[in-house]
Amino acid sequence: MVDMKKGLIITIDGPSGAGKSTVAKILAVRLGYRYIDTGAMYRGVAYAAMRYKMLMPEEPDFDVFLKNLRIDFDFKDKTKVFLDGEDISEEIRMPEVSMIASRLSQNKKVRDFLTRKQREIGKEGRVILEGRDTGSVVFPHADIKFYLDAKNHERAKRRFLDPSEKGIPSDIDKVREEMEIRDREDSKRDIAPLTIPQGAIYIDTTGLDIDGVVEKIMGYIRQKI
Ligand code: DC
């Protein structure tokens, strides 16, 4: 039985454009939980690496960069990211940051650095973690795990229409092409690849509206609390 004071650890994984962030945000408000956007954390490190020209994680300099990195997160409503105290929550949504995040997230040092932070933040419960490996690696013993997916054309359309995406190409085919490259990189990497976590509830959100997905997930969560 779940300790209600502690609350649940809920994970939502899946590829970009599957509706994870939107759904996780609504669920967090409904449940009074914290919403941890782990993608924003990878993007924060990517933006810092871009700013400080530390794009070679194999180089020894990168270890020093990671050790001295002053990156902070605030999970009040959306995940805000601060670099050296400066709010970079908007900048991390740029397409070049997406590509660097996907590349750097293949590196073990970067993953260990952020996985440690995510476990620290989530261990007290009452959290919804959203990302690519939150149910497989970060919290394999989470109370309830979801995997959201959708057909490629629908995911590209959602990303294309998402107002939080900055400087997104004006051509939907280009969005789909970039998305598919990133999906391939995220799924094929050696460490913590995007995968359906063991015991996760798989939901295909193609053709479903947000409320439909939220209700479906809330149905499963109610059985736990
Ligand atoms: O969800 P997003 O598009 O904001 O994520 C940006 C990148 O970060 C994504 O390409 C892969 C990486 N990522 C990851 O490797 N593991 C996570 N848990 C979350 C994101």
Would you spell out the secondary-structure blueprint of this structure?
Layout: E1 9-13, H1 20-31, E2 34-37, H2 38-51, H3 60-68, E3 71-74, E4 80-83, E5 86-87, H4 95-104, H5 108-122, E6 127-131, H6 134-138, E7 144-149, H7 152-161, H8 172-188, E8 201-204, H9 210-222
Parallel strand pairs: 1-6, 1-7, 2-6, 7-8
Antiparallel strand pairs: 3-4, 4-5
The chain binds 2'-deoxycytidine-5'-monophosphate.
- CATH class (first level) name: Alpha Beta
In angstroms, what separates the terminal alpha carbons? 8 Å
Q: Roughly how much helix do the residues carry, as a percent range?
A: 40-55%
Total number of helices: 9
CATH-wise, what's the superfamily? P-loop containing nucleotide triphosphate hydrolases
Ranges where pLDDT stays below 50 over 5 or more residues in a row are none
Largest sheet: 5 strands, parallel
The radius of gyration is 17 Å
Q: Rough shape?
A: globular
Proportion of beta-strand residues: 15-25%
Identify the strand order in the major beta sheet. Answer: 2-6-1-7-8
Order of helices and strands: EHEHHEEEHHEHEHHEH
CATH architecture: 3-Layer(aba) Sandwich
Mean pLDDT: 93
Give the beta-strand count: 8
